[in-house]
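Replying to the earlier thread about multi-chain prediction with a worked example.

Input:
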Amino acid sequence: AQKITQTQPGMFVQEKEAVTLDCTYDTSDPSYGLFWYKQPSSGEMIFLIYQGSYDQQNATEGRYSLNFQKARKSANLVISASQLGDSAMYFCAMREATAGNTGKLIFGQGTTLQVKP
Amino acid sequence: ETGVTQSPTHLIKTRGQQVTLRCSSQSGHNTVSWYQQALGQGPQFIFQYYREEENGRGNFPPRFSGLQFPNYSSELNVNALELDDSALYLCASRGGHNEQFFGPGTRLTVL
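Result:
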């Protein structure tokens, strides 16, 4: 069963505008963590933001914020004031507590974001 | 800069050959994971090493094996290469429970 679903294969946004990248997840584990990574064409996965399932507040890191809706099992990434350098592939990932200490991340298929000047 | 390095950056092999990929973890991180990312897909977990022992494995055959050394550097070995092994191989080192930093990857092409 698909555990992480990113339904937007590609997105466009105008420079300086905000954009939301969707992510839904499926787990029966009450304890889990959600991650967003950025992957430029160079290939490196760049960690952006983390949300724990028990965190009361939505995570924020600079221009990145995570809109965590636990009941809906969604963890959308919001990028404010988009910049040309934000053009990349974005991956949502989950780590379940039942994975023990393996640290195994389950990734979605990714969303390609293109920022237009 | 994540402090995680991988070598080589690119590699071309032929079917049936063996390959070794290397990863140097971020300082202080004693856990390393390896992922395979096929073109246009999300990364798939191969396995993880903690204190030189494998402690988790994804759905990959035994011809994918690894090592972790006392200095926490790591190797991924793939025997009897197949065309479908062509992918970007990423290693990730782990610090705290919510940190997992990836290296730049090794792009493997199997001809």
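Chain B is about 0% helix and 50% strand.

Feel free to reuse this layout for your own posts.
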